[in-house]
From TrEMBL:
InterPro entries: bHLH_dom (IPR011598), HLH_DNA-bd_sf (IPR036638), Max-like/E-box_TFs (IPR052207). Efficient DNA binding requires dimerization with another bHLH protein. Binds DNA as a heterodimer with MAD1, MAD4, MNT, WBSCR14 and MLXIP. Can also bind DNA as a homodimer. SUPFAM superfamilies: HLH, helix-loop-helix DNA-binding domain. The lineage of its organism: Eukaryota, Metazoa, Chordata, Craniata, Vertebrata. This is Max-like protein X. It comes from Catharus ustulatus. Its main location: cytoplasm. One of its GO terms (biological process) is positive regulation of transcription by RNA polymerase II.
């Protein structure tokens, strides 16, 4: 008698024979579940391990940045140190040059001859020496001005003598008339009288110091070449009018 189709299917999937060696549907489901659990646990362990491993790229980047910052600071510190040392060397060279140029820095006292001059002393001696040079310059300028005045006076006297020589050459007979000593004395007396009038009006005799100061002042004021020339010309005209 033939078996119904449903029974054959149930025998194939629902019954397990002791020696068949095949697992039915429940056993297969259990096996798949176990494999899925193992795979899930493996993935979980892998993700945990990956998260626990440090990120070496980020650490290398941070280390490079810190190294760059330290290197930049070292360079700036080194540049600042070099600039400061250069400035100190320049200042030291300047003080050494001052000591070599200023004579008073070399003439030290015996009490401090074994000691090095301080910067304050070098600067003070330099200031004193500069002031001394200014005074010497002013004194030399005054001497030059006096020499220029003397040169101008000599030029005026030269012109006067040239005029006298020319006048004598134009009138040769005028030199034949001899002038007596009395006439020469009159000329000298006239010059001295004119000078004494200005001298007496300008000189004070309160003290010798004031007298000395007034004498030099009178010489500078009333004994200028042009002033003396005018005095002499006036006296000569006066004496000539008396003779002729």
């Amino acid at each position: 008698m033939a078996e119904p189709p449903g029974a054959a299917a149930e025998d194939a999937w629902g019954k397990v024979g002791p020696g068949s060696g095949r697992a039915g549907p429940p056993a297969l489901f259990m096996e798949n579940a176990r494999k899925s659990s193992i795979v899930s646990r493996a993935n979980s362990i892998g993700s945990t391990s990956a998260s626990s491993v440090p990120n070496t790229d980020d650490e290398d980047s941070d280390y490079q940045q810190e190294s760059y910052k330290e290197s930049y600071k070292d360079k700036r510190r080194r540049a600042h140190t070099q600039a400061e040392q250069k400035r100190r060397d320049a200042i030291k060279k300047g003080y050494n040059d001052l000591q070599a140029i200023v004579p008073t820095c070399e003439q030290q006292d015996f009490s401090i001859s074994s000691q090095k001059l301080s910067k304050a002393i070098v600067l003070q001696k330099t200031i004193d020496y500069i002031q001394f040079l200014h005074k010497e310059k002013k004194k030399q300028e005054e001497e030059v001005s006096t020499l220029r005045k003397d040169v101008m006076a000599l030029k005026i006297m030269k012109v006067n003598y040239e005029q006298i020589v020319k006048a004598h050459q134009d009138n040769p007979n005028e030199g034949k008339n001899q002038i007596s000593d009395e006439v020469k004395f009159n000329v000298f007396q006239g010059i001295m009288d004119s000078l004494f009038q200005s001298f007496n009006a300008s000189i004070s005799v309160t003290s010798f110091q004031e007298l000395s100061a007034c004498v030099f002042s009178w010489i500078e004021e009333h004994c200028k070449p042009q002033t003396l020339r005018d005095v002499v010309i006036g006296v000569l005209h006066k004496v000539k009018s008396q003779l002729y």
